[in-house]
């Protein structure tokens, strides 16, 4: 077990303080507009707030347990995200054994490597060994129907929902001079900035959005929401520089990089959902859809943040 340091206490105090304020506002709005046409939107807002409460409490518990808790948390997230991805992009019965390897062998091994801080193998296990194993295992079964399509789906699912996401807890393995023992704060910085970017883009889009940024893909994402959300997230990242090894302007540049990648990740996942004709990947988190709906931005931002930090600060 590990205690919460002063910086972590401040971070969590700010997060839960914001949630309390949001809950009060949501309750007041729900009472004020009870029975009116706005109530569906307000109900959705309150469901999202309850979802955030659940996610933040789970996150605190993982931090209190220590690095092992964080690794296990992300392993579980990867499991459910891959399950949703495979469910939405159906495979054939002959792929089931390959999928068994993915869920019950490759996901645990990937996160054990993260927990062992074995960077050399963690960084190539899925993109090299698993990438080559999967088509070989599927080919041995002898089912050639849509072979390339089926194999590519499973490979892409593993790369995005497991390999990419595992870079988030992998931040705990970085040996940053004069920052030892504080890496959990770096992980929280990544998660807070990326998740708040999604929130800010939603808020600015609702308040000021007029021009869809990619109308055929995601008509609710607007230019105004994108610009406002990115700028607000960069300012948030700069204000949180004190929990990172970065200076304020470096924290701002890092925030810009990860929020841009998070936006691209959201667009790519939206493309998959639109192609499949569904609104959400699942319903595991109230008001937020599935696990992959919640971490789509993190899928693209975590690897970039990890490697930028590793290259410039270790």
From TrEMBL:
Would the keyword Transmembrane be found if you checked this record's keyword annotation?
Answer: yes
Q: Which GO terms describe its biological process?
A: peptidoglycan-based cell wall biogenesis
Coiled-coil stretches are none
- Molecular function, one GO term: nucleotidyltransferase activity
Keywords assigned = Membrane, Nucleotidyltransferase, Transferase, Transmembrane, Transmembrane helix
Q: Name one GO cellular component term.
A: plasma membrane
Q: Which residues cross the membrane?
A: 7-32, 52-77, 98-116, 122-142, 154-174, 186-204, 225-243, 249-272
Q: What is this protein called?
A: Phosphatidate cytidylyltransferase
Q: Which organism does this sequence originate in?
A: Xenorhabdus budapestensis
């Amino acid at each position: 077990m590990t205690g919460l340091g002063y910086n972590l206490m401040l971070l969590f105090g700010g997060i839960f303080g914001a949630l309390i304020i949001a809950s009060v506002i949501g309750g007041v709005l729900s009472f004020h507009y009870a029975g009116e046409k706005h109530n569906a939107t307000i109900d959705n807002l309150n469901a999202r707030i309850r979802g955030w409460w659940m996610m933040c409490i789970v996150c605190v518990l993982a931090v209190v347990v220590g690095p092992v808790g964080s690794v296990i948390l992300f392993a579980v997230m990867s499991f459910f995200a891959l399950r949703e991805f495979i469910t939405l992009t159906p495979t054939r019965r002959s792929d089931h054994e390959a999928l068994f390897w993915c869920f019950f062998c490759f996901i645990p091994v990937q996160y054990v490597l993260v927990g062992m801080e074995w960077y050399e193998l963690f960084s190539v296990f899925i993109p090299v060994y698993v990438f080559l194993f999967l088509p070989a295992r599927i080919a041995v079964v002898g089912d050639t129907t849509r072979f390339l399509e089926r194999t590519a789906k499973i490979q892409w699912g593993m790369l995005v929902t497991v390999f990419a996401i595992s870079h988030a807890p992998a931040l705990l393995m970085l040996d940053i001079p004069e920052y030892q023992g504080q890496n959990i704060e770096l992980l929280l910085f990544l998660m807070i900035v990326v998740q708040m970017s999604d929130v800010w883009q939603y808020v600015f889009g609702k308040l000021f959005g007029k021009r869809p940024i990619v109308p055929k893909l995601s008509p609710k994402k607007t230019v105004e929401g994108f610009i406002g959300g990115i700028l607000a997230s960069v300012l948030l990242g700069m204000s949180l520089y004190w929990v990172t090894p970065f200076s304020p302007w470096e924290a701002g540049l890092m925030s810009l990089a990860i929020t841009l990648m998070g936006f691209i990740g959201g667009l790519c996942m939206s493309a998959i959902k639109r192609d499949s004709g569904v609104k959400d990947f699942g319903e595991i988190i109230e008001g937020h859809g599935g696990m992959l709906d919640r971490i789509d931005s993190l899928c693209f931002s975590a690897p970039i943040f990890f490697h930028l930090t590793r290259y410039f600060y270790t």
